[in-house]
Amino acid sequence: MITRRSMLALLAATVAPFRAHAAFTGSEALDDANLPDVAERLPVNPRVVNLGAKSMKPGRHGGVIRMLVGGQRDIRLMPINSYARLVGYDEHLNLQADILESFVAEDDRVFTFKLREGHKWSDGSPFTTEDFRYSWEDVMNNKKLHRGGIPVDLRVNGKGPRFELIDQWTVRYSWDEPNPEFLALLAAPSPLLIMMPSAYLKQFHPRYQSEEELAKLMKKYKAEEWGDLHKKMSRTVRPENPDLPTLDPWYNSTEPPSGQFVFKRNPYYHRVDENGLQLPYIDKVLLNVSSPDIIAAKAGSGESDLQFANVDFVDYTFLKASEKRFPVKVGLWKRTQGSRVALIPNLNCKDEVWQKLFRDVRVRRALSLAIDREEINKAVFFGLAHEAGNSILPDSPLFKPEYEKAWANYDIDQANRLLDEAGLTKRDEDGLRLLPDGRPAKVIIESAGESTFESDVLELITDHWSKIGFALFTRVSQREIFRKRVMGGETIMGIWMGIDNGVPTAEMSPKELAPTADDQLQWPVWGLHYLSGGGDGHPPDLPEAIQLLDLMKEWKTAGTHAEREAIWHSMLEIFTQSVFTIGIINQALAPIIHSSRLQNIPEKGLFGYDPTSYLGVYMPDTFWYAEDHV
Amino acid sequence: MIRYILWRILVMIPTLILISMLVFAIIELPPGDYFESYVAEMRAIGESADMQEIEELRARYGFDQPLPIRYLRWVGGMLVGDFGYSFEYRLPVSDVVGDRLWLTILVSVVTIIVTWLLAFPIGIYSATHQYSWGDYGLTLLGLIGLAVPNFVLALILMYLANIWFGTSIGHLMDQKYLNQPMSWDKAMSILEHLWIPVIIIGTAGTAGMVRRLRANLLDELRKQYVMTARAKGLHPFKVLTKYPLRMSLNFFIADIGSILPQIISGAEITAVVLSLETTGPMLIKALQTQDMYLAGSFLMFLAVLTVIGVLVSDIALALFDPRIRLYGGRTR
What we know:
Number of strands of chain A: 24
Oligomer: heterodimer
Largest sheet of chain A: 6 strands, mixed
Number of strands of chain B: 2
Helix content of chain A: 25-40%
Distance between the termini of chain B: 16 Å
Radius of gyration of chain A: 26 Å
């Protein structure tokens, strides 16, 4: 059966033969590196990125990008930004084959992947299905390396896939039941790893290496067991091993610890532009480690060519001013969170009176209606953000205005009426409503105490809520303690962010809308129950929450796009109508500062981790310098 | 004398054991551990951490075991030179500290030398010209140096250096020289950046030293033997250096105890503001993220240096000051 997705993939495959046959050009920086000719370095059928068609300009090789990072571990940003995936999203969030030449998904159960013939890892070793087999057989199914067996993400109802090698370039994963999340997981910012550079890693695996040699290597790299050694050498999330081959546009050439990490171009990278130039255009990316607090100051004095990490909207005016002094440009991108700032009532709090109140949808709706979002937007975000409940952004194909508008208007009268209906009719002499047990309605909102604007927002809400007879107090704590107190039920309400992925498509999992994780501050105990497979926590006992969870499970086994879309819409409907989280502002802006000579960076974009992988979907490998760069 | 030294060295052992217990208790006090703060941090920026790997690390480093056993493992490791593993850097602690140590020592030694070079002449001048305009002026300057918080000074100097001289903000060298072998250009770049931290860290120290030297020297200068020497027509400089200056240096020798750990980890706040590649910011970061072995082992290292420093200054005092050597024991 041919589904929409396999159709797309087939389409992609027919377009692919538009080959830049003529002549491929490699970067001059590699000319004296003793490498084979560029045509031999590229796969037989490289991925041609038609920049003209994307209204971007094809460029030229050369140049160095300097970036500042807040700590050594932030080299993890490189694989996220590089965004070379088996399948990946484009800037409109359509899935397409990237490292793969093509893929076919039958009923979301059987996935057949076709590799590019002649594709090579960054060390020149061939990238074939052997790398998938190694990852599957020798790593995932090795008790020493994966104590709990194959990763949970690869299981459907506890059962893993059947793995078939069809030929050197074709591999197939099949499940008995649909696994719609599979492709999304491969396209994630931190992707599910189903292939590893086997030619390199086999030296650390006892199946392919003699015991004496392994013992020597363990001694050399200070590992106590071969399992540790293998893990240490194969880490890709933070590419700390300079020898580990990669498929990314740049590979790390610096061994930690270091104050500067040099990422050099991968001579075997599989993408070319329409003129046959092998990507990436940029020869080197330097990550300079600095202290997070002075990164904005350094970026504003021209010490970064591309900076998005550790700069925030509060730095915008300063960064903008530096445009006059340095050849830099500052763009404002839109954050993809469902809410930049949201109040989150804890439905699992220990205080039974508050718990009962918060479980009453009328109270949640009233609290949301009583917030003057416009004032907050103007006072705290210069009016540049967008007033909305915690929902999805217009950039998502699933967007409907009624989701973000649900109970997000400013209506004190209706809020008061709802609270009266909920039984909070009595007031004390100060006009504060009295709770059923006689206490005045004083809400203590806890924050993780990391951003000053949270307290600004709360200050404004204190005013707004006084009109509905609620008093608000802020308790600033520290992130871990904050989360612990929420999970332990000691916090009745917290201030945090909304859903992480505000631009979902129907193919992405809606798990954020249902109680599925213990870090969902509105229902941590229910989330824990799901997360632990029923071993810990409690199952949800609110009808709407149960419904959301059931719908989420249904999505997991839904076989068609239409079904998934329908499930998403019913979940969004329930989630926003029940006001489980009180979103205040979304589409807040994030500054991106870059050298004014750097081309192909969009002025406006979506800024977030999942699904856009920060810069990933905008393809940093296609950025280039217009003039000579020192 | 030798018995005294031996006895002091023996006393160091229980002191260090006590310190190690305290250090361990302090780094264990905050709720949670490194992995929890790591997961929370990842989640705060909307990312996820590999839980499986974290669970394995936890088990591997014995986080599931009771407190006393973890303490013994840590101390036992340190005795054989294994300072533990930094989770933040995913490297053995000794590798993490190694590189930064040299730059820290460079900054501290230069600062200490500059402090001495400034403080001695000023202190002597202030004492010999008490209540003169020069004394008042220098005292005022010194007090300003003491009173202005280092981080404010750091921010101001950093800004001015960037605007006026185009020095890159923060750090000890231009970032293109990081990881490069030492060269003339790199040395120049370090010098170009070094003066800011040296001035900042030096100001408070200089001011303090000037005041102490002045006070001690004034006590001596009023004594009768000085008057006698002066009355006999001795050259004023000789009058000053022969005894009074030497007498007033006791505090200076006693300072050695605190200087030693300072050389290894001085002026954390300034270093954080300036983003220097020294050990100070590393220690603070380690404490924040509960990277317990890195923080613990480093604190322990500083404690050992303090204890050794105090020992050295005690012995030096006894050697250099006959009053302490001859009468010190009797008052006991």
